[in-house]
């Protein structure tokens, strides 16, 4: 789902790094956020809601809504839309049993 | 840690303020929750008839480089969690910054516009699509529907087309408690006619000029073609509303219904397959930190919502707290930059560091000029709104 | 629309908000206490303007009169451990 040739903007280069999401390995571009890297692999579901256990993904994309929370290396409620992927990160979708703040 | 000036938000307003203040010898800290400076600049891309392409990221990079050159203290990937008198700013890492002066430049947030099914993954605010397309360079979806017709959604529809993304159409939202005039073709057309200068397509410009006349507005709605009118190759539907977004675990389709001049459903339902829906509900000034700091607020429709009361120096009702950018009203990035320059000078002056106070007068003029010449505008009555704020301020000061 | 979520964090539906208003919750704060709308992790950043809409539509109040929520620290989630750390320092 990447945009490779943009007619106006310079193309983004960048090394690829590996990360794990819900047990599977994926490649991200250096400097990319978790949400963008996952969407590039067509993954939209980032967590499940507490009450109705319904899937949720990014909504605002700029840090305001907290819909994109994931578990990152054991840390809860990390916003996937603002947090950059680092090499060998382990990310898990947030669910009811992930402890809230 | 102690600073003369602590700036909350590294968008165009916060960054320009930081640069102007630091240039005059003020010690400055700037905080942002993003890993990179730029704020909403980072996603912006549109054609500016005067200067060619407006590429927000380039402008952010230039401002960012100046910040580095001036040795300004950056606190990135840090959320401001609280503010305490006078003045201590609490960051999410637990760090506390102390400032003689504070500038709150937290920008704007998007107004949500609930539609049945809007919590499904694949539904996002239009700003998310802007960031994905222009900054992250990832397609928000393979087949996209946009809900909500306004200068921002039209601009972003264009950006998506430019990036080769398939946008199936731009629709009205279902009429609801939250849709306001966005769901009412008649009101919407008269609102859109205010934005002739920002509507980028020549055909729409012509159309827009005619729409200044109510008679033509009425005709335009009555005879609006059911297949929409194409803007940059994207069908724009002024007589069709998305009434539901459907899907099991993520978006599969939208349900679209024909509506009358006032937005009430009056026709057949059709289903359109999409994997992404972008909702544009408009923007509102994000003032929560100024609230917590105890600044007084006023509600002004003309500027986009609640704003901290401020004077022409961008000073709030709380001593030492200043503000700049979209928190004072929804406008384009150029205005935010000029407001930042102004407030940076004002604070340098308060600290006794500004050599030539005429610069402040010049900076005030530049804010007005930027407002007048804005290529993109969101609130057709922004100037009236700004006058009202000045009146409210004066009234408050005379109490 | 009644079944449509308004507060995405706490999963509060439009119907619940309207009925809270009809049963006497006529301020943002009262609605928050009754329904939990706006109590979630985003602190109402997404739903606050929506609840204002509901209030002004249901009881015909002007936005200027809708009693605003009290805003208080912290405005963003912060871990207690981090607060404690800095108190010491
Ligand atoms: C979705 C969206 C799209 C827009 N598109 C355009 C466009 O195409 N063209 C245009 O001219 N204008 C656009 N605007 C208007 C935009 O707000 C202005 O152009 C300009 O960016 C405003 O500058 P600012 O410095 O006031 O705020 P911003 O650029 O929004 O910067 C504010 C910064 O403050 C940070 N912040 C806020 N709260 C906190 C906190 N608690 N802790 C830490 N950091 C915080 C934010 O992360 C952000 O980086 C858009 C606005 C939005 C919301
Ligand atoms: S998508 Fe809203 S905070 Fe990440």
TrEMBL record, chain A:
Task: List UniProt keywords, sorted A-Z.
Answer: Oxidoreductase
Pfam families (UniProt xref):
Fer2_4
Q: Which GO terms describe its molecular function?
A: iron-sulfur cluster binding; oxidoreductase activity
InterPro entries in the record: 2Fe-2S-bd_N, 2Fe-2S_ferredoxin-like_sf, 2Fe-2S_ferredoxin-type
Q: Which SUPFAM superfamilies match?
A: 2Fe-2S ferredoxin-like (SSF54292)
Protein name (database record): (2Fe-2S)-binding protein
Which organism was this protein described from? Oceanobacillus halophilus
Automatic annotation (TrEMBL), chain B:
> What keywords appear on the UniProt entry?
Oxidoreductase
Give the top-rank taxon of the lineage listed in the UniProt record for this protein: Bacteria
Recorded hits in Gene3D superfamilies, A to Z, give: FAD/NAD(P)-binding domain
Q: Which GO terms describe its molecular function?
A: oxidoreductase activity
Q: Which residues form a coiled coil?
A: none
Any matching Pfam family = Pyr_redox_2
InterPro entries, per the entry: FAD/NAD-bd_sf, FAD/NAD-binding_dom, Metab_Enz_Cyan_OpOx_G3PDH
The FAD/NAD(P)-binding domain covers 3-170
Could you identify this protein by its name?
FAD-dependent oxidoreductase
